[in-house]
Structures are given as structure tokens and as C-alpha cells.
Specification:
Layout (H helix, E strand, L loop, with lengths): L6 H26 L10 H28 L2 H8 L4 H29 L7 H32 L5
Helix pairs in contact: 1-2, 1-5, 2-4, 3-4, 4-5
Amino acid sequence: MPGVVTDAWAQQVIEEHHELRAKVARLREFLDGPRPTAGNPGAHSWAAELSSQLSTLHDELFRHFRLEDESDMVEDISSAHPRAAAEINRIVDEHPRMLEEARELVGLALAYSAAEAASELPLRRRVGALLDWLEKHESEETDLIQRVEYRDTGAAD
């Protein structure tokens, strides 16, 4: 598949999706665990751990999205598969919005640790919504890469 999706690039992106799914699962597990009410003993530690995990997630998403956005593969795939261009653009357009939401959630977690947030429920819901969005996004992206690669390798012949 020279000039479009290389096996190495596709495998790297798919492997990163696998790693991101594992990170999302760990973050969900953390959110489902016990958490102290803001202002009570332990709230700072819980919120600091949440902000740390969200910050790590943001950094990994930033690096992952940069790989996808700056590798020229997005343009190559769009050129080689014009029917997929709108879907590709929609997926890529989500990248900055997802990063912005992750950054906002880090700030909310830090506010919770300082007992500035009235409740952890809106924070937990927003983190959960981000994780849902990320899972859907990465699943759509993986499906798209596999569809394009499947066609380009001639496996459908």
C-alpha cells in the first residue's frame, strides 16, 4: 500500500488505540472506586490522582493525535478514498475538542481537590462522557483504517 496506509502506520495507530482503551478502562475503574466528599479527608488525594490520570491521558492523546494529524496519512487516505474524506475530516476535527475537554477536566479535578467544587458528580459525569466519546472516536477511527486497509490490500478480491 505505498503512498496510502502502510501496514506499519496502521499497526502503530491500532496499537495506540489498544493502549488508550486500557488507560480508559483504568480511569473508569478509578472513577467507580470510593471517593471522599470535597473538603473531607482524602478528597485532595482522590482529586490529585484523578487530575494526574487525566493529565497523562491528555498528554497521550496529544501525542497520538499529532501522529495521526501530522503524518500526511490523513491527506493520503482522503485523496485515495474520496468517499471516506468527510468521515476522516469529522474524526480529525474532534481532536482539538477532545484535548480541550481533557484540559478542562484536569482543572475541575484540581478545583475539587481544593474543595472548590460542590460535588464530584458533575465531574465524574463529564469524565465519563469524555471517556465514552474517546472510546467511540477510537473505535470509528480503527474501523475506518481497517476498511481502507482491507480494500487497499486487495483482500476483498
